[in-house]
Structure formats: structure tokens, C-alpha cells
User: Fold this.
Amino acid sequence: MSYFRVGDVAGTPGPKPLEGVRVLALEQMQALPYATQLLARLGADVVKIESPGTGDLGRSSLPAMTDPEGRSVGATFLRNNLSKRSIAVNLKAPEGRQLVLDLAPKFDVVCENFRAGAIERLGLGYEDLVAVHPSLVYCSLSGFGHALDGGAPSPYGEWPALAAVVEAMSGIYELKREPGKPPTVSPMGALGDISTALYSTIGMLCALRLRDATGKPQRVDVAMFDVLVAMTDIVVNFASLGVRGGLGAVGIMDGFLASDGYFILQVIREHQWAGLCELLGKPEWITDERFATRASWTGLLESEIRPVVEGWAGTKTKLECCEALTGAGLIAGPCFSADEVMTDPHLAERHMLVAMDRTDGIDEPVLTPGNPIKLAGVPEGPEARVPWLGEHTSTLLQEELGLNPEEVAALKDAGIVA
Assistant:
């Protein structure tokens, strides 16, 4: 399979929309790292601050590969940190904190996703940074946000919040839970993290525009709980319309078995039902009173509809089923396996699978989803591989703060940087 690889460029080389924007990221795991990776892909210069020794917690996730020094680099880190530079600073040391305060005025944006209250205890909160950088954009991403403009703090403000926590609190787990069974946790991978990352990215871009227009500092505050309520909008919307405990009688929204796997079919309008009946060779169902309402399609799915659909599909591949269904004006799609996703021609053509060569002797590259935002006239790539822990510490301290090699060496010896 030919992938779009780290270092490749597609299209005519030229400027990207965020060139000149500089981002200093005090970040961990996925939500904020995904956001800053997206900014980097759009041209921003992103410098990642990590703790000496362990680095971003995403480096310790599994599965993993090893870097040239034999240190583990986990999957969470690998898919969220392309095209960044890494500086390792001990933020708990006063000298380390001062290095961040010295670096901040060199950047347009400082962003963080520490546990609630942690960044303030380190002396690197909004007020601390604005004191040294009066035109700063400061973005905080947390589980439950900060109290801004006189608002009350969240009752959950001290809770640690990984994606599954706020996904559960959004109501979507309970809405989709089957009777008598526990909820399915993290049903969509990084739903909580990546959706929060996207709202954070929008917030930072809006704040940059407002900062440039007013010259005033801007504070962006994104709570994962807020984002998940927005993303799972049907929970409160349906409930306000009287539908609780499921999606109600919406029609057919389910998976069906073909000869080589499953495909999904959605029939939620009357004209779609008529089209399905014709395709299945059941035109009499169109006028059959048993199937007169969308609620009846839901109620008769298992006893009547599924056997006919899967009988029709059993001699076809899932792709053939979807081609026939969409050709009849219906809504269907194949359930791809990971191998099918990795060899899909659409994704290859649109450079949606970025390959980074491994450094531990394994030939197959690490794959990361590419940038879904396509801009006419703006090239794709080149991506840079993820940074090794503290790889750019010396360079950044010398170039940004004017420290000489002896001063950097002294900071390393003292455990302030690594």
C-alpha cells in the first residue's frame, strides 16, 4: 500500500494559513495535543513543553514503539504530535517556571490541559502569563472549565476528566444502553477528546482574530462536559420533545449481515421505505397496514424485516449491497475493518493516512489519520515525525532565550531541563 508519508508534499508548495502563528503547549494525552497538531498542520509553529523523564503521559500508552534511545513512545502520543518540537522543563522548579514565563512572550498562544487547578498552583495560570505577555491568547481545556466573568465554579470542578467520564455524563451512554446491560464505554474511540480538540481549535482561532483586532489578551475556556453535551445534542433535544429511554420510533437504523460482513441501513422516511420494499421484491409491504408507520418498522424489524433484508444480502458482498441500496436512493454504508480502512482508495487519494517510519526495526510504518481540512491551493504536508522527548530543548533555549551552551548544560545538570 502506498501511503502519504512523513516528509511528503502534495500540491504546489506554498504558504499555509497559520504560518507566523506560534503556539506554546503545556499539554498531555489527546484532546489538546490533537488541537495543536491540527494548528501545526495548518502552518503554526508548535512547541510542546513536557516533563523531564516521563514526558507527555501519552508516551506511556499502549500499544507502543521505541525511539532511538530505547524509550517507549505510545500510540496516543504517536497519533497526536506530528510536526511539533519538544522541550523538557521541570515546571515544579522555580527556574523551570521562569523559563516558561520567559518563553511565553515569544508566542501568540499559550495553551494547557492540566487537571483543574494544577496550572494555577504551578504559577502558570492566565493571570501569571498575561502579566508577562499582555497580548496573549491563553486557552485552557479541562473537564469542567473555569469560572469566568463572575460565574460560579462547576460542582465537578475538581474531578479528573478523561473522555469516557464526560461521554457518560452527556447522557449518550444511557440513551444507547441496551435494557439489562451496562453501558458501552468509549464506543467511538476519542469522541470526547477529538470533539473537545476541535472546539478548542475554533476558540483559539477566534481569539487570535479578536486579539489582532483589539490588541487585548484573550482567554479561551473549553470544558469537555460542555462539548459532549453539544456533540450528543439528541439527548436533551429528544427528551424535551418527550422521547426518553432510547431513540424512539425513528424507523430503521441498524446493521445487516451480507456475505462478507455487515453494512448499515437507514430508513427513516416513507419514500425510503417504499424504495426498500421495491428493491427487496416486497412491493406489497408498501400498502400493508402492519408497516404503515415508522414505529411499526422499528417494531417489526427483527421478526419481519431483518430476515428479508439479510436473505437478499446473503449472496452479495457488503459493498455490493450498498451500491444497490444507494442506487435505489437509500442510505447505506459498509462496516469496514481496520485493514479495509488502511487500503481504501478514497483515503489514499485524499492523503488521509500519514505513515511515519518506525525506529525500532519493524518495517511497517505507524499510521496516523491525516488532516481532514482541505484548502484549495494549499499543499498537503510536509509532516514532521513526532519529536523525541526533549529533542529540541537545547536549540529552543539558545534560539529563543539567547542562552549559551554552558548555561543550557548547567540547567540540565540541575535537572531543570532535559
Observations:
- Residues 191-214 form the longest helix (24 residues).
- The first strand starts at residue 4 and ends at 5.
- The two ends are 38 Å apart (CA to CA).
- Residues 34 and 80 are 5 Å apart (CA to CA).
